[in-house]
Amino acid sequence: MLLNRLKAGGPAIAKQGILVAFILFMIVFSLMSDRFMTGDNIMSVFRQSAIIGVMALGVTIVVIGGNLDLSVGSMLSFATVLVVDLHDKIGPELAIPVMVLATLCLGAINGFLIGILRLNSLIVTLGMLSAIQGLVLIYSGGQNVDIADQRGTWFAFFGRGSVFGIAAPILIFALLAIVFHVIMKTMPFGRKVYAVGGNPTASVFSGIPRSRVVFMTYLISALCVSVAAIILGSRVMGSQNNVGQGYELQVLAAVILGGTSLLGGAGSILKTVLGVLMLAFIQNGLILMGQPYYTQWLVTWAVIIVAVWLDVAAKRGRLFSPIA
Amino acid sequence: MSNLTDITPLRWLMRNPIWGFVVIVFIFFSLMSDHFFDYRNFQNILVQASTIGLIALGMTLVMINGNIDLSVGATLALAAAFAVDVQSWAMFATWGSWQILPAVSLALLVGIALGAFNGFIVWKTGVDAFIVTLGAMLGIRGLVFVYTGESSFYAMNFAYSDFSALSVGPFPVLALIFLFCTLIVHLLLSRSVHGRNTYAVGGNREAAVNAGIRVGPHMMINFMIIGFLAALSGVLLSTQMGAATPNLGRDYELWVITAVVLGGTKLTGGKGDIVGTLGGVLAIGILRNGMNLMQVPAFYVYVILGSILIAVLILDKRFNRATDGGLRL
């Protein structure tokens, strides 16, 4: 019934399910709360979503390549603690490149194990999640770190500054999203990632260096994490040693919500941005409606399953699964 | 299915390398720590391992089916919250220690219901179990926080919190419950029709359908089993603490998957057994306990466990080249 409607009413709408859901949510929330559709509120939601958003961009590319990355949360803790700690020791000019390099090393380990050795990405990144969490605690001695001089450092720009009235985190997120979108849609590298994720065997036969492409996706993911860490460290001007705990799930939820298939080979950067914004607006809208914070997790649960279900059903051509 | 008699110990060890690892860490910690080789400490290890171990039994079934359940930690927390809270409901006020009975029953039912819900969605929608239970992991944890109001429940009935200290002769009750469940699930998997179907469904779903197995309900039953075991684990954990906190069981899914993978169960489905899982659970239990006794900071335990998990994967890849490590979603 519903599916016939979808077929007849317009495949375009079925394909843009996430966009339709997004608009519906926005309408409902603006009817429920008059504070929702104000410029200030929308700007603050954008700003808050930047950290998860930047990480989700990298994970989207990893997932399009047919793998998973569960280690981004621990990696965010690692990168944030490192950059904040080094800020006072060697200054921000050196702290940022050192942190980016260290984070890229972690990404390279992921990439080596998964891309070159072809190990299962779920278990490898699960192991890395635990190992990196341990690394952070060892490095910080279990202590939280702070930047001593919070006013006199240009490091504050990334989290708190703005250009022409637009907050820096939003600019960074938008810029990165556009760059990645262009890479994935128009450049040879993007096509290779889609090919490797879509059919690994075929991609090898057509001469695509599968190992190197997967390796690169994990480096990109690590790069995104280090950018997110700069924003987070700069905004908070300090870091707890478990600050990224649980981020991997929210990031993955956003990617899945954006319609990227966990099978690999399909997905889009811009839809991930929609997924990120949708999660952020749901959270914001529910809080404005006076709901407790954790209600958003319940809503997220329902939204994820319904979104993925409709997506799967549209491809299958029938609403319910043919599993006996 | 070969006979037990024609398996030499060495060949058995080749097929269950995790038990070799268990023996090595056992000897290592016996030599390194004065307090490790002690009967009381063995009791400790078993009791500590029982929480993760119970869930790992169910995870073995689900993973052999080719699915995964990430929501077990949250299920555990919700069941624990129910087990502790229901005791104090006004309608059971006059029941004395019998008020534990409806509380625990309800907690276990909640676990089974959540498992059934996960399984039903996987069955009917055809959405992958990874996504369904990832959503459930967030959602059920949200339920826990909403239900508990973000605070802890404390058991007022001391019979409840004394239960964990009980022992039958020299054996702690919690360890006995775990070993009993291990035996039951082992028999279920290795001797029953349901167990044979579990391998068949995970090995080749198409073929299983053609062989007349009702794959959907079958997978749902395994999700209900893991829901029950996660809830049982939550109840036992809350008797140990005399309380239920909303954060209970966080990261447990990671420990459980680690134990099951160490035990040789394949994420791709169709392969694995309870003997291996028991080895994986004991390996993790001994490692955590031994490092604790040697006063290794908890930080290093994370690094070591993560490294071991990856090392196992590399070794597995070297020895079983035929099996592709790709995640089937």
Architecture overview:
- The complex is a heterodimer of chains A (324) and B (329).
- In chain A, strand 2 and strand 3 form a beta hairpin.
- Chain A has one domain.
- With 324 residues, chain A is mostly helical.
- Chain A contains 15 helices and 4 strands.
- A two-stranded antiparallel sheet of chain A has the order 1-4. Chain A has a two-stranded antiparallel sheet with strand order 2-3.
- Chain B is an all-alpha fold.
- Chain B has a single domain, classed as Orthogonal Bundle (ABC transporter involved in vitamin B12 uptake, BtuC).
- Chain B has a two-stranded antiparallel ribbon. In chain B, strands 2-3 form a two-stranded antiparallel sheet.
- In chain B, helix 1 packs across helix 2, helix 4 packs antiparallel against helix 5 and helix 8 packs across helix 9.
- The two termini of chain B are 29 Å apart.
- Chains A and B meet through helix 7, helix 13 and helix 15 of A and helix 5, helix 6, helix 11, helix 12 and helix 14 of B.
- Chain A: It is a multi-pass membrane protein.
- Chain A: InterPro entries: ABC_transp_permease.
- Chain A: Pfam families: BPD_transp_2 (PF02653).
- Chain A: It is found in: Cell membrane.
